TrEMBL record, chain A:
It is a peripheral membrane protein. Gene3D superfamilies: P-loop containing nucleotide triphosphate hydrolases. This is Oligopeptide transport ATP-binding protein OppD. Its main location: membrane. Keywords: ATP-binding, Cell membrane, Membrane, Nucleotide-binding, Transport. Coiled coil: none annotated. It comes from Limimaricola soesokkakensis. Residues 6-255 form the ABC transporter domain.
UniProtKB/TrEMBL annotation, chain B:
This is Dipeptide transport system permease protein DppB. Its main location: membrane. It is a multi-pass membrane protein. The gene is dppB_2. Belongs to the binding-protein-dependent transport system permease family. CDD domains: TM_PBP2. The keyword Membrane applies. GO terms for molecular function: dipeptide transmembrane transporter activity. It is found in: Cell membrane. SUPFAM superfamilies: MetI-like.
Length: 328, 314
């Protein structure tokens, strides 16, 4: 197997002044041309994980634990801001959830893209402009020459997200992190944006981390899936194995909460309760406070252990069905 | 842009009319009769009657207002009851002095206040932030007259580095003019610098949390560029408004500073006119000051137009 583009091992950090880690021992790997989906409900640590990888968390308020990141063969610590800063916007790029507010309202969109190019390519303004125009065309903005001079408020949300994508991909990054890029958009536009990212990925071979809580999106684009709960990865594996054979009670709960178009109509299933706040997380398995199968053993933290090749689950009862049958 | 400014000017017209009525009404309501003051000790009824006729005090109020406003429109603000000089001439003499003082004070305020505000926002919660805040608070709480006197004692008397008081027109000797105005401008500017610093700080704190600043960082831009270009540009709007209002305040509020440094400016004119019940002068001054505020506001609006693309035609 060839070397993966990105390997994250035991990423762990907390915000200064807090008792518990926000993100605990998160590990995953991502190959070129692959898409890793990080799923979980709001507050599960998906976005902060991404921001930490990009070095975008406020440096003085975050304390990193051990853990390491290997990016394209280079290994460094997650808190190595200087190292990450050199790659940010160049070899790794990010797009965000809020296209309406993520562009600077005071500057022309073309200049905002060109700025990213100029910064990393040491090229003149004319070359940067040419590249920005090329990118605007690539992301499907009609009449790039005219749109170059537009201000963000003159564009729709979908168009703005296209501009964000153009900006992120202007320097041909090897890694793209997309933090819920379609959440704020209309359903029809959502599909267009996902398709656009997929197309550009096929063209450049970049690895993509897609953060989402939309399992429909996951089913469509994921190569691998990491299910996060309360700052921990509770289940990790290929999209196929996660969808066909979910093992963690939380993953099963998430799957069950997706409304079905076929079969009898019934109340939507939900996972009861909410994610506990930092400082009130149960010791051991953080899902135990909401888990229907919780037992005394859950006070000890389960390892993210391999169930099947490539499919890891952090649950004492995994494989769940067999364990339950045995105990019945 | 032009139509935008034109619209602002049209909107300002009712305000100006209202102000003129207010200014005119104010002097009618003020206690004391200027005619009695002019007639002298004897209060000779004939003289009083003559003066009333001369200053058209016997006309109905609205006729008096109409006469006055007609003069105002043609640049005639009346004649000082005390010095017999035209009010327009008096104002034209004194206003440039105060404008020079206000401009120089504003330069001090901007040069100190804005960088200090940016710095304390960026370094929020650190020693730098606290020091900047303490200095700003001192700037706000130290009275101008005290700081002025202390500076005169130290800089002018002890070091003999700058002239202690007076005024030299810039046309006469630019260098000496600037030197003479330096201390008063500094005294006037420091208090404003504190206000500007606080506002810059809070505007920057708001903007630094915004999504587009995060985007700028995600692009890999240097932190300096993120702050000075992406953040500061968007924090400018409230700063521009404040600066425009502060400038108006400077013109009206330079009274104390002008007294301390014996600068023959607008402030001194106001004080003298009020003490002498020189109504024509008071009226003229209030009117000109109010107009100044309106002009500054229109300029601030025009500046928004440049700063905020969302205001421009879509």
């Amino acid at each position: 197997m060839n070397q993966p583009l990105l390997e994250v091992e035991n990423l762990r950090f907390r915000f200064r002044g807090q008792e518990q880690d926000v993100v605990q021992d998160v590990s995953f790997r991502l190959g070129r041309n692959e898409t890793l989906c990080i799923v979980g409900e709001s507050g599960c640590g998906k976005s902060v994980t991404a921001l930490a990888l990009m070095g975008l968390l406020p440096q003085d308020s975050v304390q990193f634990g051990a853990g390491r990141i290997r990016f394209d063969g280079e290994t460094f610590a997650p808190g190595d801001h200087d190292r990450i800063a050199k790659m940010r916007g160049d070899r790794m790029a990010m797009i965000f959830q809020e296209p309406m507010t993520s562009l600077n309202p005071a500057f022309r969109i073309g200049d905002q893209i060109a700025e990213a190019v100029e910064r990393h390519r040491n090229c003149g303004h004319a070359a940067a402009r040419a590249r920005a125009l090329e990118m605007l065309g690539k992301v499907g903005i009609p009449a790039p020459e005219q749109r170059f001079d537009a201000y963000p408020h003159q564009l729709s949300g979908g168009m703005r997200q296209r501009v964000m994508i153009a900006m992120a991909l202007a320097n041909d990054p090897e890694l793209l992190i997309a933090d819920e890029p379609t959440t704020a958009l209309d359903v029809t536009v959502q599909a267009q944006i996902l398709e656009l990212i997929a197309e550009l990925q096929a063209e450049t071979g970049m690895g993509t981390i897609m953060i989402t809580h939309d399992l429909g999106v996951v089913a469509e684009i994921a190569t691998n899936v990491a299910v996060m709960y309360a700052g921990q990865v509770v289940e990790y594996g290929s999209a196929r194995s996660i969808f066909e054979n979910p093992q963690h009670p939380y993953t099963i709960g998430l799957m069950a909460s997706v409304p079905s178009l076929t079969g009898p109509r019934r109340r939507l299933s939900t996972v009861p309760g909410v994610v506990p706040a930092i400082g009130q997380m149960p010791e051991g398995c953080r899902f135990s406070s909401r888990c229907p199968f919780a037992a005394p053993v859950c006070a000890a933290r389960p390892d993210l252990a391999e169930q099947d090749p490539g499919h890891r689950v952090a649950c004492h009862f995994a494989p769940l069905e067999q364990t339950l049958e045995r105990s019945a | 842009m032009l139509s935008f400014v034109a619209r602002r000017i049209v909107i300002a017209i009712p305000t100006v009319i209202l102000i003129s009525i207010f200014v005119f009404g104010l002097q009618k309501l003020l206690p004391g009769d200027p005619i009695l003051a002019m007639a002298g000790e004897e209060r000779d009824p004939e003289t009083i009657a003559f003066l009333r006729e001369k200053y058209r005090m016997n006309d109905p109020v609205w006729v008096q207002y109409a006469t006055w406003i007609k003069g105002v429109v043609t640049g005639n603000l009346g004649i000082s009851l005390r010095t017999n000089q035209p009010v327009t001439e008096l104002i034209a003499q004194k206003l440039p002095v105060t404008i020079q003082l206000a401009l120089m004070a504003l330069v001090f305020a901007l040069v100190i206040g804005i960088p200090a505000g940016i710095l304390s926002a960026v370094k929020k919660g650190t020693i730098t932030d606290y020091v900047a805040n303490v200095v700003a608070l001192s700037g706000l709480s130290i009275p101008n007259f005290w700081l002025g006197i202390m500076l005169i004692l130290l800089v002018a008397v002890k070091w003999q580095a700058l002239p202690a008081s007076g005024y030299v027109p810039p046309g006469e000797d630019l260098w000496l003019s600037l030197k003479t105005m330096l201390m008063p401008a500094f005294v006037l500017g420091t208090a404003l610098a504190a206000t500007l610093m606080r506002h810059t700080r809070s505007a920057m704190l708001g903007v630094l949390k915004s999504d587009y600043v995060r985007t700028a960082r995600a692009k890999g831009l240097a932190e300096r560029r993120v702050i000075l270009r992406h953040a500061f540009r968007n924090a400018l709007t409230p700063i521009v408004t404040l600066t425009a209002l502060l400038f108006g305040e400077l013109i009206a509020g330079a009274v104390l500073t002008e007294q301390i440094f014996t600068i023959p400016g607008f402030g001194k004119l106001v004080v003298d006119a009020v003490f002498n019940r020189d109504y024509a002068v008071v009226q003229g001054i209030v009117l000109v000051t109010a107009m100044g505020f309106i002009v500054m506001n229109i300029l601030a609006d025009a500046a928004y137009f440049v700063l905020n693309p969302r205001l421009r035609k879509q």
